[in-house]
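Dear colleague,

Thank you for sharing your sequence with our group. We've completed the structure prediction you requested, and as agreed, I am returning the results in plain text so they can be pasted directly into your records. Please verify that the sequence below matches your submission; if there's any discrepancy, let me know and we will rerun it promptly.
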Amino acid sequence: MYGYVSGLPDFLAYFVTGMVLLVVFATVYTLVTPQKELTLVRAGNAAATTAYLGALVGFSLPLASAAANSVSLVDFAIWAAIGAVIQLLAFGVAAVLHKDLATHITAGRMSAGLWAGGIALVVGLLNAACMTY
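Please find the predicted structure tokens below.
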């Protein structure tokens, strides 16, 4: 029976670390972006929900890749930080390419939410693929 659970401590360490990193990213993202994601999500704003979930999934993809390919928890955290920075830059690029993006998301315009969420997913997928080494 011990052989089946021998990897449990490592799994728990990476899983808990990953969840903490996800919460940290979600918090930083809401502080950096101009719109108030959680307030808008709670109010039923589908555009904000789409954009925010896109960013969370867009970060989770490289986070998962980093967990699968890292050699230690420190290595995992470093690559997660790189993924977070790239994801934040992706929002900045999306905002530059879509004038008044935050205003349109706040107003509930789905095209803006899909744009921001889609850019986050595309960048996250590429980011995750580049983290395989």
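Summary note from our side: The helical segments are 2-5, 8-32, 37-42, 46-69, 73-97, 101-106, 110-130.

Kind regards,
the structure core
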